[in-house]
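pinging the channel bc i need a second pair of eyes. not urgent but kinda urgent?? the chain im working w is below, pasted from the shared doc
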Amino acid sequence: MNKRQPLAGKTVLVAMSGGVDSSVAAALLKKQGANVIGITLSVWPEDSMACARSCCSVTDVDDARAVCSVLQIPHYVLDMQDAFQHEVIDYFTSEYLRGRTPNPCIACNEHIKFAAMFRKADELRADYIATGHYAHVMHRPEGFRLTRAVDTHKDQTYVLYMFGQKELQRILFPCADYEKPQIRALAKEFGLPTFQKPDSQDLCFIGQQGYAAFLRENCAGLTRPGEIINEAGKVIGHHEGVYLFTVGQHKGLGAFSEEKLYVTAIDAEHAIVHVGKSDALFSTGALLENLSETFDNALCDGTSIEVKIRYSAPAVPALFTHTKEGPAVVFNRPQRAVTPGQAAVFYQNDTV
């Protein structure tokens, strides 16, 4: 548990997804004497096909309600359908139309989940909000800092990097000190009906149809076909839209060459997909945009850091620097498939 003052008597709103992690988070907080209130976000109409395949489905709402009943805590459902469409779905499709690869989970955390939780906490005059994420908020002399969870395989600091002091001082992550098998054991010990529920996989709004089908459904008519060009500048094929490609992708390119090719760059303005061999994917650095400094001390030019360039990637050594084009990172070793649109999250030791 986060190193804070005792929680007995404090009011804590817990984001209840209907999964085992948020269920145990609520149970742990109640065990510490907090006044716990469960909050579930509704992001799909009940009759939507997406609702049936998402992590915010009617079944998940029912599961969250059942857990709250077992724990004997209040439960609220907040309607976030319009906001989710605008802030997550529309963002997701617009980024692919621009030839970029989005981070919808980060957008959802910042603009939907945590935004809604903070608003409700203010309305109910709650002291804290909590989720089932695997991350720590540590209170240090210099302030509140986001640090990696005990379970490094489940660590989710990458999708939580955007929060500053104002938010971190009110966020609790009760699962941070546990590994996933321990969380399931605790769920069973607490008698929670979600103790055997499988973890959600992939993006909640994609489901079994897959990325390509979802993007075709939502991007049709918003883009134009174009050319696939190799490293020699030769047109080797055509595509129906840049939204179907991402840097580093190999799938779908086999028909255009006997060589194994990968997407190396996407020119959405001219509808061109550039492809090349694997070694063309490596970059020595990357330019940054929308730099989010969540701590008061600004990064100095030449600061040594570790950086994650995608959720599933390990943090790698790099230098933060300023260039004529703007802030950038320079990797100690070239990195594969540095993808426009993805977050670059900085670490020093275990701290974001």
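so The chain has three domains: 11-208, 223-276, 282-347. and The chain has a mean pLDDT of 91. — does that match what u expected or am i reading it wrong
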